[in-house]
Amino acid sequence: MSYSVTQPSATQKWIAGILVIGYALITMLPLLWIVATGFKSSADSIAYPPKVLFEPTVEGYVNVFTTQTRLSPDLAEQPRDDLPWYEQLVRNKGNTIVGASRYSERFFNSVIIGFGSTLFAIILGTAAAYAFSRFKVPLKDDLLFFILSTRMMPPIAVAIPIFLMFRNLGLNDTHAGMILLYTAINLSLAVWLINGFIDEIPIEYEEAALIDGYTRFQAFYKVVLPQAATGIASTAIFCLIFSWNEYALAVLLTSGTAQTAPPFIPTIIGVGGQDWPAVAAGATIFLVPVMVFTILLRKHLLRGITFGAVRK
Amino acid sequence: MSDSVIDRAARATPEAMAQKVKGLSDRAIAWIFVAPTILILLAINIFPLIWTVYLSFTNFRVNRPNNAVEWVGLRNYERILGDPDIWMTMQATAHFLIWTIVCQVVIGFTLAYLINKKFKGNDLWTTIIVFPMMLSPAVVGNFWTFLYEPQIGLFNYVVGFVTGADPSSFSMIGEVSLAPWSIVIVDTWMWTPFVMLICLAGLRSIPDSIYEAAECDRASKWRQFWTITIPMILPFLMLAVLFRGIENFKMFDLVVQLTGGGPGNTTTLTSIDLKREAFEKWRTGFSSAYAVILFVTVFGLASIYVKALNKVKQR
Questions:
Q1: Which of chain A's residues have a Cβ under 8 Å away from the Cβ of B118?
Q2: pLDDT of residue A1
Q3: Could you report the per-residue pLDDT of A4-48, keeping only the tens digit for each?
Q4: 3-state class of A70 per DSSP?
Q5: What is d(CA A34, CA B141) in angstroms, rounded to the nearest whole number?
Q6: CB contact under 8 A, A154 and B295
Q7: A132 Cα distance to chain centroid
Q8: Is the ipTM value over 0.95, yes or no?
Q9: Which of chain B's residues have a Cβ under 8 Å away from the Cβ of A241?
Q10: Residue B175 belongs to domain spanning
Q11: Where in chain A is the domain with CATH 1.10.3720.10?
Q12: What dihedral angle (degrees, nearest 10) is formed by the CA atoms of B183, B185, B191, B192?
């Protein structure tokens, strides 16, 4: 390799690499700790000094999906071999399973509300972004800024009137209400990002299509949509992650049927005291999908988090 | 079937052109495409905002729907601005805002600078560093309370191990002097990657040729850093600060799960205080005025800042 003044030397690369990897390992520690705690027994989870090596168990996972109660001592002593493994596991601790917990319901609420709001935000956002990108919309810049400014409000400030409005409309604690709300919040992101992606597609393709006799609609879904597909897909993932992680509005506007997982997970407590392995298990199931999405998104990450202000 | 002029004209023209004649005008399509978005945003964002402004001039309370709603003028605003407790929460917010931004800019920029040395595998490690930022602040914040436990928490253990202090001798969340720093630490852990990514994009956008020219002029590395790298990356850094500033001004989920605003009021940020006023004390009118003040503050500061940012960009 020829010498270049702008290329860092091998030593510099080594030092930079070691420092960055060191930071990455430290920053991963809390996350690894969540995953590890999910596989600990409750005694191991609160051991001093904190245990790095331990015998893995799925107790936490069983606990997070079930509601349990203590068995009376005489019942606990009777050996029962006919029970499935998870019942046995719980019985060993002197408890018994009395039913499913609310965790899976809350998780599915997150899925439904997340996907629902993403779908609507993407459909409406793509249409609006196409119009902003390709047509002369009066007051275009003002409208775009208005759309962005809706993101600046503190969620709690918006929550007061939304709470009143939803109560009058009977939307409090319903899936429809939450989908509507998250759609509105995600729309601003969707419009801004997709607008940027469509701007990058040369307009000549569409002009050619129009000359060949396509209508505007045909040109839109046969020429523009396929080209913007990757951009739209990554925007969708950003919207999904937002709805998935949202807490402030969810905790204020939902309490039962439509409650999502983020307000629920911190309320998980076991029989007799805080059950950290169960919390960690619930958190792991909830966080891992986002990590997978992050890996899929890494090319468009920067664009998504800055509303398209920085493009690589 | 109606036989309008346009239909006859359409039939008389070749198929391809007929579609265009029947099709909608561009202007109509534009409105059809934009209208739903604007309507939803008006309904879910602007209408509530106007309602909040209206409520802020009344003494309305959600939990007393039968009380007559009275117009109280500016009284709510006067009470908020004269309330020493609210100034305390403003101070707590300012402390949180300033220190998170300082820490994140310093660490984030350093990391980006190092990653830009393009060592082998830097892409992989960048992705790993980014993880905390993408996760649910409420869920992660809740788990951090476990890491901060005095006796059994990993954080205290590691700090004790490094400094030799007794891990059970301090409580990050429980002590008045440490709690404000506990939230700064977690927020920095979570959001440093955000600043890092923006800085990295900035560093990568600087063309090599500028450094080559500086090298020909025999500028030292130090000089190159201060006269090329820093000015070129400043707009990116300022953008990162803008985003973090707005986000942390609104901060609620992470801190409410970590400390719940305590001990005392030491970590009661404005959003947490607002939530208490609105949804625990149910002082709807009062908290609406509070919300308006917060919104005007963030919007005002952001607009001033964006003006400064544009000036830096134009240089």
A1: 8, 13
A2: 43
A3: 667 788 888 999 999 999 999 999 999 999 999 999 988 888 887
A4: strand
A5: 12
A6: yes
A7: 28
A8: no
A9: 134
A10: 76-314
A11: 104-260
A12: 160
| B64: in domain | no
Q: Which residues contact A307 (CB under 8 A, 6 or more apart)?
A: A148, A151, A188, A189, A192, A193
* pLDDT mean across residues, chain B: 87
* Angstroms from B268 CA to nearest CA on chain A: 14
User: What's the pLDDT at B1?
Assistant: 44
Q: Which residue has the tokens 């509530």?
A: B48
Instruction: State how far the Cα of B85 lies from the Cα of B200, in Å rounded to an integer.
Output: 41
CATH label of the domain that carries residue B214: 1.10.3720.10
Q: Which B residues 242-301 touch A at CB under 8 Å? A: 243, 246, 249-250, 252-253, 257, 270-271, 274-275, 278-279, 284, 287-288, 291-292, 294-295, 298-299
% of chain B exceeding 90 in pLDDT: 43
pLDDT of the residue at B3: 56
Is B225 near chain A, with CB under 8 Å? no
> Is the residue at B171 inside a domain?
yes
Note whether residue B36 is domain-resident: no
Query: Nearest residue of B to residue A157 by CA position?
Result: B291
What does the alpha-carbon distance between residue A253 and residue B97 come to, in Å, rounded to a whole number? 27
Identify whether the C-beta of residue A225 lies closer than 8 Å to the C-beta of residue A73.
no
Tally of structural domains, chain B: 1
Contacts of B28 (CB under 8 A, 6+ apart): none
CATH of A104-260, one of 1.10.3720.10, 1.10.10.10, 2.40.440.10, 3.10.20.30: 1.10.3720.10
SS3 of B283, please?
coil
Question: Could you say which residues from 24 to 63 on chain B have a Cβ atom under 8 Å away from some Cβ of chain A?
Answer: 24, 26-27, 29-34, 36-38, 40-41, 43-49, 51-52, 55, 62
Cross-chain residue pair B26–A135, CB shorter than 8 Å:
yes
d(CA A182, nearest CA chain B) in Å:
10
Distinct helix (H) and strand (E) counts, chain A: 16, 2
Distance of CA B20 to the CA centre of its chain: 46
Which residues have C-beta within 8 Å of that of residue A139, sequence separation ≥ 6? none
**Measuring CA to CA, which residue among A160, A147, A130 is closest to residue A186?**
A147
Residue B21, domain member (yes or no)? no
